[in-house]
User: Fold this.
Amino acid sequence: MTRLVPGANAPLVNGPLQVEIRYTPISGVDIDVSVFALSAAGKVRGDGDMCFYGQPRVLDGAVQMTEATPGRALFSLDLSGLAPAVEKLALTATLYENKARFEAVAQLSLSLSGGIEAEIPTSGMQETALILGEFYRRQGEWKFRCVAQGFAGGLEPLAKHFGVEVAAPPPAQAAPQPAPVVPPPAPKSTISLSKITLDKTRSSISLEKTAAGFGEIKVNLNWNKGKAGGFFSRSKSVDLDVGCLFELQNGDKGVVQALGKSFGALSRPPYVQLMGDDRTGALAGGEWLHINGTHWSEIRRILIFAFIYNGAPNWRETDGIVTLYIPGQPDIEVRMNEEGGTFGMCAIALLENDRGAVKVSRRVDFHQGHRLMDQAYSWGMRWSAGSK
Amino acid sequence: MALTLQKGGNLSLSKTDPTLSKILVGLGWDPRATDGAAFDLDASAFLLAANGKVRGEPDFIFYNQLKSPDGSVEHVGDNRTGAGDGDDEVIKVDLSRVPADIDKIAFTVTIHEADVRKQNFGQIGGSFIRILNELTGAEVVRYDLAEDASTETAMIFAELYRNNGEWKFRAVGQGYAGGLRALANGYGLNL
Assistant:
């Protein structure tokens, strides 16, 4: 067995390689392990050079992520299957949204086929993104070096270090950021590695359409089904409904929601569909609204809202989260962590067609019902009472 | 002709390259791209008498004492980050000016504050040390520190020594603990 300290290297066995990363999970903070395939210049050639949770099989299977569970990630490498242009593979770990530093990870270790082990000394580490180690070619043979260096700024500077242009602007930083410059050898990436939370300091983001287009946009609403226990608790499950107001470029307007059974449609206008109704929030999945992104050009705006159909509106306790999944773009999260008073309707996020881009704005404002919300947003529709 | 350094191997400079009278010791590395303390490598030279020790403090050529009194060894200057292409630190040796009672010149490379900064050569990308013929620019020998001295923080890289009237070069490649101070005291200084 070979034990490597940071900086040390060792030759690798021939043939397929299993790489196991083990760590002590931190509650509430995911650790994402990834592999970047790099040229001699130390940069990726394109999107296909990154193996991570969103793209677990790359380079014709030469690099595959075969497991990613809390505390353990497993990669399968076939180094002989890599093109000669790939000189190095960088194995990295990042703490989701920089919610913690690596000093909080009690144990972080690597294990490679052929008996190579490395323990990463995380004590005192201020980094939130780490290069754990590198696989590299040396005089015709593959070797592994333990690195254990990284960035306090997290995924953003890490990706940039490898020539990846992350699609979205970085989270609020002390110094203003100049417009990102694409380094000549690295193409502009259409894969985004970051997940973004819209909040009061950054309440909107515009996503430009990529060559691949927007595809099927999935909007998820999830929440606490209701607190049990506690002396004065009411233990009532909260039924939240997701819905949206839509307005098309041709002026057609309407609502997609379970109330009145206006489930919408994907392949024809309004190109928005409600996918079933979870009345208890018990399903891990919550509720889903899908938008047909290939027809985004025909849509002017969509207002995503949540409506408490039954149960007392305690919005803060409901702990609702709306997540937007747009292919090739960062996941966008909007937390409904505001007090809503007695109003049963919360307008959560507004999607606007901003010259072809999808502009997402966090709203989280509360209204007594559809008509008043409509008025607040000048939607201009007529409303009458309905039931489910 | 560049040779791969073999530990303990030696070669006659006169035979390898008869023109060799002025040599350069070049030290290079990549500046740190990741967060943390900068990588600061230091090249030093020790002029040693027959007993393997310096005659006095002026025989220790390093970032705070750049030139030997006889002008035979000169350090071109301290580079504290590795910025710049090619050799980041250079020590020049004019073999024809080395005093007669100097039998050997030892060349070392150390990581500044290695213990405090928790750095070893393996973490310093692109780190190397080499010897060049100053007149022709030919590389005589090169040592890949990051690769072959990865867990070390200081190293005696090579020695030039007199043998039967001619200069010979020995590849040492010996790691050393304790940094530059320990190295200097090993050569008879008292720092």
Q: What stands out?
A: The helical segments of chain B are 13-16, 114-117, 145-148, 179-186.
